[in-house]
Amino acid sequence: MIAVLKHGASPERTEHLINWLKEQNLGVHVSQGESHTVLGLIGDTANVDMEMIQSLDIVETVTRVSDPFKAVNRKFHPDDSVIRVGETAIGGGHFALIAGPCSVENEAQITYVANRVKQAGANFLRGGAFKPRTSPYDFQGLGAEGIRLLLEAKKATGLPIVTELMDIRNIDLFEEVDVIQVGARNTQNFDMLKELGKTRKPILLKRGLAGTIKELLMSAEYIMANGNENVILCERGIRTYESTYTRNTLDLSAIPVLKNLTHLPVVVDPSHGTGHTYLVEPMALAAAAAGADGLMIEVHNDPTHALCDGAQSQTPDEFDVTARKIFRIREAMQG
After folding, report:
1. Helix and strand element counts for the chain (H, E)
2. What are the tens digits of pLDDT across the range 148-193?
């Protein structure tokens, strides 16, 4: 249920209404817009007297929301959410470029790549410390040492870091990580999502391997329902009939759909979405043109010898070119 308050409703009357609603065992999500305040009511609203609330002189409209996702719903929060990480922001017109290797391999590699992507205009450094691999014999990441090396690269460049949490038991290792990534395999690990909801760190939530848009939004709802509103959605491709020429099918239509349904920022990962370096740039440009709030691109100093996903990684020189094109598209869209 949503209650839209009239312009000029006094803070005292508004606070009184919010407290009354909470006494009805409802969660109240408050969204303060330029002209209206929107109260999103979360919980069992079946017995809430809509007519009584509508009769209050500070209330403009009251409507029920049939969507199962509430906190992530744009109806609850009409304005775009802006997720801030230090001096960097994403959403609400703020565009973020996230770049770095699939896996952290050694200090020289991550520091070199971090410096190069920063020079090209990246806002965040990504790198895997813990790696989910289909085969148990593939490189699984450096673990805690990988996080230490990411933090060293952050010290050298100032770039905030994004890395994936595989197991909630390792959460203490992520204390200095700026953005915690939830990968496709954990998108519906609801126990993990609940625990991440108790933190205040930004969470970059990837779409599941064959997840629907609704399932992605419900996963985000788990995080927000437990108190953490700092959620960034990531379209990273889904498994479809096509598996010969692309690793996944990158669903760019998800960008405008999500922007219509939710106030949360939407990032696109064309590296995992396609699986091939030659496809990364055109899909990145298309995602930027479709209105994505950011891009996550894998960059490796020597993709041929990468320990993980070299086939979809750009070299720093290739990333330089792609980044310039992305920024030109962004300028054209704003102009």
Report:
1. 10, 14
2. 999 999 999 999 999 999 999 999 999 999 999 999 999 999 999 9
CB atoms within 10 A of CB 44: 10
Closest-CA residue to 312 (of 99, 31, 96): 99
Could you read off the pLDDT of 292-307 as tens digits, one per residue?
999 999 999 999 999 9
- Is 283 exposed, middle or buried (CB count within 10 Å of its CB: 0-12, 13-18, 19+)? buried
Query: In this structure, are strands 88-90 and 83-85 parallel, antiparallel, or unpaired?
Result: antiparallel
List pLDDT tens digits, range 54-99.
888 898 998 888 888 999 999 989 999 999 999 999 999 999 999 9
DSSP code of 123? S
Pick from 7, 261, 236: nearest CA to 126:
236
Determine the Cα–Cα distance for residues 121 and 143; give it in Å rounded to an integer: 28
Helix (H) or strand (E) holding 284: helix 277-289
| C-alpha dihedral sign at 193, 48, 262, 122 | negative
SS3 content of the chain, % helix, strand, coil (to 5): 40, 20, 40
DSSP structural state of residue 312: G
Q: How confident is the model at residue 42 (pLDDT cuts 50, 70, 90)?
A: confident
Amino acid at 144: A
At 206 the pLDDT is 98
Per the prediction, the chain carries an average pLDDT of: 93
Scored b (16 or more CB within 10 A) or e, 224-240 reads bbeebbbbbbbbbbbee
Angle between helices 213-225 and 190-197 (to 10 degrees): 40
